Amino acid sequence: MRRLGRAGGRPLLRPGLRGPAVALVCACLVIIAILGAWLAHRAQPGSVDGRTDDWLIAHVHSGRGMLKAVGSLGNTNWAVLVFGLLVLTCAVTRRYRGALLVVIAAPVAGAVSEYVLKPLFDRTISGYLAFPSGHLTAVSTMAVALVVLLTGPARWPLPAPLRWLLAATALAAVPAAAISVVIDQYHYFTDTVGGTAVGTATVLATALVVDGAFARRGRRAAADDDPAARDGISAAAPGLPRV
């Protein structure tokens, strides 16, 4: 039991960031609910989409190839490859909580987006369900998971400047992917906001649950292995045989 508790290693989130993480998860859920209710059963862009999408399509010319490459990370094959590499890196560096984070968050975020929210809100573009964006769900899940893995207590053993550079690059990939799918007219702007909210909320909620589960296991293991705690229990109940 003690070995299992220790195998989890350091927590994914710093104690001081757990409150803000909960607040951010709640904010993402509110955004998804409001946008979903507003856009439900629509097949046309809303007022925000009309202005934002038209501006991006008209003004974003340079770097389209790079944007398209970033956006393609949300495709199933690339997403599976990236998530697999994250899990492998966590396993090699013995960051088992990090591996568990990715193994849980990636499929949950994708399933919630594709099989729950899209059919529920029925927002379409060119006849396809669009809200929330599956591409942005995947890319934001990658980005937020990477930030947790690179900057939290269970961070990967890399030099600090490199870790922060990689974390910033991961976060920058989210708006780049959003611009890509909008200018290619795969999604409306609000679809990308919804997808980003799904990915962000899923990763942070998973990190909170994983840390909480390991903390409870650690407390139980400490109680089981503490002779003083066992003696105290025996002394409090003298009628019971001492184990």
Q: What's the Cα radius of gyration?
A: 22 Å
Biggest sheet, strands in spatial order? 1-2
Give average pLDDT, whole number.
89
Poorly predicted regions are 1-5, 232-237, 239-243
| Structural class by sheet pairing and helices | mainly alpha
User: What is the CA-CA span between the terminal residues?
Assistant: 18 Å
Beta percentage is under 5%
- Described by its quaternary structure, the protein is single chain
Number of helices: 10
Question: Please, could you describe this protein's structure?
Answer:
Helix content is 76%, strand content 2%. The protein has a two-stranded antiparallel ribbon. The protein has one domain. The N terminus and C terminus are likely disordered. By secondary structure, the chain is mainly α. Strand 1 and strand 2 form a beta hairpin. The longest helix has 37 residues. Helix 5 runs parallel beside helix 7.
Question: What's the SSE blueprint?
Answer:
Elements: H1 2-7, H2 15-39, H3 47-59, H4 64-71, H5 76-92, H6 96-121, E1 124-125, E2 128-129, H7 134-151, H8 160-183, H9 189-225, H10 227-236
Antiparallel strand pairs: 1-2
Helix pairs in contact: 2-9, 4-8, 5-6, 5-7, 6-7, 6-9, 7-8, 7-9, 8-9
